[in-house]
Amino acid sequence: MMDLVNIKIDGIEVSVAKNTTVLEAAKKIYKLIPTFCYHEKLPIFGGCRMCLVYDVKAKRSIIACGSYVYDGMEIETENEKVKEDRKFILEMLFTRHPLDCPICDKAGECDLQNWGTYWGPQHNILPITPFEKIRPEEDWESDYLEYVSNRCVLCMKCVSVCDNINKSHSITQIERGFEILISPALKPMDTSTCEMCGLCVDICPVGAILFKPFKFNARPWLLKETYTHCSFCSLGCPVVIDHDDKKIHRIRSTAELEICAKPYLGYDSFNTNRLKYPKINNNYSSFDDALQEVIDLLNEKPSQTVIVVSPYLSNENLQKINEIASKSGAYITSTITLDLLPLLEGFGEYTPPSEEELKNAKKWIVVGNDITDTNPVITYYMNKKVIAISPQVERLKKLYPLIIDAEGEQIIEKLIENVDGSEIIVYSNYFYGEDAYRFGKKLKEVQSQMQNKILLIPPYPNGFGIINIVENLSYLPDIISKIESEEIKNIILFGEDLAEFLEEDKLKEILMTLEKKIILTPFEDGLALVCDVAIPLNTWTEEDGHYSFVRGIRKVKTSIKSNINNNKTFEKILNQLKSGSKQNIVKSTYGKLPAYFNIEKQNIWDVSFFSRRSNNLTGWKIKNFSTVEED
Q: Where in this chain does the record put each 4Fe-4S Mo/W bis-MGD-type domain (predicted)?
């Protein structure tokens, strides 16, 4: 049983757990207590003193965020003493804070503005102009993050979130007292350990840290907010999309503080080179004419046609595509048949760890590639001992892991040597084909013998959705072989994943071999330029849908208005299909992956065909590569 204590807050009785802070107790009865330095997911700092309340029995003001309740405690949150305390703190902050709200990007979502309106001085107390409130400047040497020292209220949340949530330790404080400045641990910021998650920007209560691509772009009160789940990878982290129905202006974290560079920097990929109308032979056409090309192909030549489905599509989309393949009899495949499908066929029935098990894990073993590039947010959960069994560990070094250098079969051997049953084994992508199948079997053996929890987190969002929904998947290398032998002469691509895995020369060869190439894609560049027919496709920001993330099925909500609807497009195709013969399938035993497949280690800036189209991510990549070359 939980020990409860009874307290009074502004005369209202409330029972709370013994180890509850006054601030958290006040939230239970919806009492508003202002804060700058507090966040429920960060260690208590107690530096801003904005949350002062009055302890009646102690006859003094105390900080609500760092004071714990006791039985019989009486708290007043709005007596005259408390109001004077808050006013004095705000006076100090406003004395050194420039009155530049009209040009500050934080205007409209600034805690200093809000608390000043409620409790602060309503006029300038000291005869100091905004131009005289000057502090030393600190240049972060970043193309994406800007620090404005004059606006800083010294809450230290940015340093805390970088140390305790992201754990990259990229920023720190220099100097002391009112002269404190926030500075990168290493400059330039963009080429340091910074992972560009943007948490320091999101958590800053004022406009001291700014996101440069958003600067002077839009006022927050003119934008709409969509609370949804990020669909850049299989974690499905909660995020907020700020938009105006036509354009995404930024993607930021929720109070859960779970975001990485892929959405934070990569949001601009949704605004770039979008295919808005169908094309036939690179000439704009009507939707009906373009869809008729798909329908005719599937009705007339299903046994010579393959459908390639993308893990960036929702479950609803996958269901329709599965019905199209089943009804027509065409082959269907996906790039997930290279890694996730053989892995799970080797592993067998899979149940991921619960959210609670992830949060309470005492030991982690990270296997294969550096997950800080493919699924960075999972590293935010790693608060205990970490072992990395990998041929290359880079950003994961932030967790000070025990690094065991291994590759290929050695990874399996080292894993068996280091497992004791108490850890969560985390695997993203490293093995392919028969190697993935064999690794899956070994993981299952380890779990059966040691009772470990296994976390399989693909770098793409809805691989589990494809496996659960799409039937009769053919192994992609066998499909390529059938294209080479001209048994398959036509291809229908949903998304551009094929270009991510086939080497450029091989992709050109395959496309030249095919008689008919149709693509449904969000983008007008890339494969749309070399296909006979290109049909627009919505992304996860433009259409409601469910995704099978590793943390369960989550609904992804529409933010941008679109003149198309994926499901309606697929429904039109489905309704005009003739029922074909039994569906074609090629499913051999998994072999070694042919050499023409590109399975090099992925980096965070080019982990998908979305990321590669982001100017922000590409600029970050170029800056890092340029630094390496200079060194």
A: 223-291
Assign domain 4-78 one CATH number from 3.30.70.1130, 1.10.4030.10, 2.170.150.40, 3.10.20.740: 3.10.20.740
C-alpha neighbours within 13 Å on the C-beta side of residue 535: 24
- Homologous superfamily of domain range 341-457: NAD(P)-binding Rossmann-like Domain (3.40.50.720)
| Crossing angle of the two packed helices 566-575 and 315-328, in degrees rounded to 10 | 10
451 phi and psi, to 5 degrees? 60, 35
Whether the ω angle into residue 136 lies within 30 degrees of 0, i.e. cis, is no
- Tell me what pLDDT residue 631 has: 47
Indicate the SS3 state at residue 21: strand
315-327: average pLDDT: 97
Fold of 279-334+469-540+563-588: Rossmann fold (3.40.50)
409-418 helix and 434-450 helix, angle to the nearest 10 degrees: 10
| pLDDT higher than 70, residue 17 | yes
Within 215-312, where are the H helices? 261-266, 287-300
Asked whether the beta carbons of 424 and 387 are under 8 A apart, the reply is no
> How many residues make up the chain in this entry?
631
pLDDT digits (tens, 9 = 90+) for 414-456: 999 999 888 999 999 899 999 999 999 999 999 999 988 999 9
pLDDT tens, residue by residue, 487-521: 999 999 999 999 999 999 999 999 999 999 999 99
As a three-state string, the secondary structure of 487-533 is: CCCEEEEECCHHHHHECHHHHHHHHHHCCEEEEEECECCHHHHCCCE
- Can you tell me the distance from the alpha carbon of 315 to that of 465, in angstroms, rounded to the nearest whole number? 6
**Structure tokens belonging to residue 591:** 């072999």
**DSSP-assigned beta bridge partners for residue 403:** 388
> What is the C-alpha to C-alpha distance for residues 205 and 567, in angstroms, rounded to an integer?
41
Break the chain down into helix, strand, coil percent, rounded to 5. 35, 20, 45
598 vs 140, 244, 481, 493, 507, CA distance in Å? 36, 38, 16, 18, 11
